[in-house]
Every structure is written in structure tokens, then in C-alpha cells.
Amino acid sequence: MALWDVFQHYQIKRADLAAKDAQRDARHTGLRMESELSRLESKVDGLALICQALVELLQEQGGVSDEEIARRIDEIDLRDGRADGRLTGGPIPCPECARPAHTRQRVCMYCSTRIDQGMLLEKIGRGAAR
Question: Residues with Cβ < 8 Å from 105, sequence gap 6 or more?
């Protein structure tokens, strides 16, 4: 066997190992993505359940119509200046140290004071409202 043949076999073996590594990495990435997708679907289902319960309570006990709820959804959506169907919080001062915090934070990163301001649904998934 010529030296060139040995080198080619070596290159082929390296390429084969690299392809197997890539396949293994792709499988692991796929499994991680499936797990994350499942987690997010579960979170969305939980939030949809909460929203439906709140809508039914508003309608039964408060006489609020679908139209009023739809108007309020649009109003809340526009609070950040964009009608994009997204619920976004915003910066607030920490109630203790007055340094910048965000409504999605549970605690101030500077002084560890609990941040209670913000939207309830942002905090429910992190255990702050239950």
C-alpha cells in the first residue's frame, strides 16, 4: 500500500469519526430542544388556564364583557408603545435602594429586596405570587 493510500484512509477515518460526533451532538441537541419545547408548552398551557379562569371570574362576578376584555388586552399590549401581542415589563426603581430593577425580577440584584411591582403573570411562573 502506497503512502498516499495510507494517508487517504487516515483522512477517511477522521471524517467518519467527525460525522459520528456530529450525529451524536445533533441527537443530544434535539433531545434538549424537545425537552425545552415540552417545558414551554406546559408553561403556556398553565398560563392559558389561569387566563381562562380569570376571564370566567370577571364575566360571572363582575359582568365584564368579551369586548371589554379585548379592549383591556389591547391597552396593556400598547403600554410599551408597540402593538405586538407581547407582555413586556419595564424598569422600576428598587423600593429599598432606588437602584434600577426590572418588573420581571424577583429581587433587587443590588440589595436583595423583593420586587413586588410588575405584572402578576410574569411572577406566577417563578413562585412569587402563589
Answer: 115
